[in-house]
Amino acid sequence: MKNNFLPKYQESLYDYQSRTTSYYLQQLDTDVLKSFSSEQLEAITYILNQAIPKPSPKIVDLRFVVNLIFSKFYIVLFVGKDKRKRRRPYNPGKIARIGNLLAATILLIGLNFVLSAFILLIVYLTKSALGIDIFPGHLSDILRDFL
Fold first, then answer.
1. Overall average pLDDT of the 80-97 stretch
2. Which of 10, 63, 66, 129 is the 20 to 30 A CA-CA neighbour of 73?
3. pLDDT tens digit string along 6-20?
4. Average pLDDT in the 22-49 region?
5. What domain range includes position 25?
6. Are residues 145 and 97 in the same domain?
């Protein structure tokens, strides 16, 4: 039996989302594929249709890449309804729990800083647009006197 799995695999690696049942059946050797009866093919097709993951709509689908000098990272954020039938078993160890707590704390503090900076920026721009001068000798006054 010759193995032509690797070339076909490498060709189709880029197109993972469009893989269908027929794609997986075409990966089989033609002699093996011809040896199946129609009932066997129906059963295999049914099982493959059940096994192929179906994408669900997401409320938020944010994907972007961060290029650094030494490496390239991708960040993905999905928000959507959880349609899994049962919960996945996940029992984090003590170190993983501490790491998760630390990561969540850092993320919340960072989100707080970003949100606070955004609110202060909006307040400052609103104050400037209305011409309210809270502190005399502000940077714009100093620059005006200097020039």
1. 81
2. 10
3. 455 444 444 666 778
4. 89
5. 5-51
6. yes
